[in-house]
Amino acid sequence: MGKSIIGMLVIIGALVLPCGCSDDDDTDAGIDGGATDTDTDTDTDTDTDTDTDTDTDTDTDADAGALAIIGSYTESWGAVHEITAASWTTVFPPYGDAGPTTSKCHIEAYDNTAGYLTAQNDSVDSYYPDLWSRYDWAHDSQADGGVSLYYCQVEYAAADESTAAANTSADHGDISGGCNGFSWAQLISD
User: Which of 13, 41, 72, 157 could form a Cys-Cys staple with 128, CB 3.0–4.6 A?
Assistant: First the structure.
């Protein structure tokens, strides 16, 4: 009896083992004496995903549009300012026996609507190298109908950009005393 069970398992195994499966078109010789078995499989996949992404954050980086106050100016106190999309450079007039002093800040972010920018002081500046500054600006109407541009450097030695940006003490509505208790400096276009 043991040999007949083994023989039946061998026969069943011979019938089961040669079975090949494929999803592609193929022709297989069946085990039933040469009969041809033809399988046809046709798959059609259609991707109908349509995604719409909406960017709702406020971008205040220097690439968010033109900085509103780009230009060359002379300050009411005699300093010369060159403001570009990348930096704010100030050349202060000689003081005492010292010659002119130059300060350069590299603009990191700005907000034209709120009227301020943050910038990192250049690493070769004489005062507070590599620290952070915040410049605020405001426009003030004049008696002659014109509008003048004023600025207040409310921060000049912050440890990082977020500290500089958080200093909102400049009072845009008080040009005569809203800059750390002093008047804002007028920038006269060259």
Answer: 157
75's CB contacts (< 8 A; 6+ apart) are 81, 90, 185, 186, 187, 188
Q: Which residue, 132, 139, 131, is CA-closest to 114?
A: 139
Integer Cα distance of 124 and 44 in angstroms: 65
**What element of type H or E holds 71?**
strand 71-75
Q: How crowded is residue 41: how many other Cβ atoms within 10 Å of its Cβ?
A: 9
Q: Return the DSSP state at 100.
A: -
DSSP per-residue letters across 147-173? EEEEEEEEEEEESSHHHHHH-----TT
Q: Are 88 and 100 in contact, with CB atoms under 8 Å apart?
A: no
Q: Which two tokens stand for residue 68?
A: 């509103």
> What are the structural domains, with CATH classification, of the chain?
71-189 (2.40.128)
> Per residue in 6-65, pLDDT tens?
444 334 443 334 434 344 444 444 444 445 555 555 555 555 555 555 444 444 444 457
